[in-house]
């Protein structure tokens, strides 16, 4: 197999507001990302994905786009972006942008036209509907942020649909003119040299044609958030979405075919695996990588993880390339969910499973969910349902770079407070500590790069017992074993016959693991990569 860059490379997600500020306004910017490219290259990642940087009223911090072909002045200019691209490419780093095709900001000129009158040519670019006979919303669909997903427009006497905030109006992808306009947006960035897109809420893009009510969710508990009151049967994952993914893929592929460099598409899709894998495409190719978020919520025990991995591998269609994610800007951080010691084991898991890994900024420092006082809450999801603690601010706190004021993130007032442990948990400090999680990440990334078995090798499960998950990776003559102790007690591991004499290549725990004849003592919370002697 010829490995493609997006198969072997490791992706690193940057939440640009929180990465590095250079102009003192307290929010990160493109010049800040550029300043930190050497850090990223030295860390050993291959690709950066930058959450939205387009002009936006920031109702959902950039996921409400008002102009798809520009840069928000808070982040910089188009020229800054072009510079960043040149500088990233000069270091061998690929750059992915976040494409938000499901909805625009309500301030997007298209929506302003669409809502101006029922006769406007762009009326049908969005999803407008008459009220139900009682004058209420057309159906029972609920916004992912709570409340009805329909907003009444007094001036034109209809409702419009928004899967998220009312400031994020859903585009009508059944309209060919919308498709053409949005495909042009992709070409605009591809032509500038962008290496690919992460596609926001891909599974939301098409809704059932006649807008039937969604069925009630029998398992609904109020603590889940109001969106879970109904099952999103008719409002998401409609068959027609695959035609759109196919069109997008054809556009991306046309660049590679023209010798302009292969471009990649990654879909954000939260669905059970059997439906997720359809996004690889069936009759036509779909996205290269439908994000696989299963590790985020997985039960952290060997048997559950083994089953999850085996089921995922088995569900992949022929030729489909796997991928794994531990965290993102919407979900609780891995160090908070699993703790610091298991956070290190999780890092080893992520970087040794078969498939493209995606890291979330700050996870390489073991950043935890920050404490956000009620007065500092920014996230609309947190503000709307504050009693449920659904806010995402805790996972978006500024990157701590060093021990200087505001951790070197900004000379101004950070848009979100830094995590309290920043004086010790920061890049500069942890670079000096040989056993910090940051240095573990660096070593893992370098071991991964040096061993094709870990990037393109086959995967074989060897065992999942007593809190210990063991698997092998193999490419040509190279065979490695990964053993992960998911518990806080030591465990003596019997090694397979072909590996009775093994040397640890890397451990998540300081010091050398004691090996005996045919066995290895895994210490508490220890993950190791072993190489048969
Ligand atoms: C995606 C983004 C999330 C955003 C939502 C609406 O799920 O990851 O941050 O709020 O889409 O665009």
Percent helix range:
25-40%
N-C termini distance: 27 Å
Secondary-structure content class: alpha/beta
Question: Which regions have little confidence, pLDDT < 50, spanning 5+ residues?
Answer: none
Mean pLDDT: 96
Continuous helix count: 15
Shape, per Cα inertia axes: globular
Strand content: 15-25%
The total strand number stands at 21
Largest sheet, order of strands side by side? Answer: 11-10-9-3-2-1-13-12
What does this structure look like?
The two termini are 27 Å apart. This protein has an eight-stranded parallel sheet with strand order 11-10-9-3-2-1-13-12. It has a five-stranded antiparallel sheet with strand order 14-15-16-21-18. It has 15 helices and 21 strands. The protein is globular and about 80 Å long. The mean pLDDT is 96. Strand 10 (264-267), helix 8 and strand 11 form a beta-alpha-beta unit. It is 26% helix and 18% strand. With 533 residues, the protein is α/β, with parallel strands linked by helices. The longest helix has 19 residues, at 334-352. Helix 6 packs parallel to helix 7 (241-257) and helix 11 packs parallel to helix 14 (437-450). Alpha-D-glucopyranose binds next to loops. Residues 60, 63, 100, 164, 200-201, 268, 329-330 line the site of alpha-D-glucopyranose (GLC).
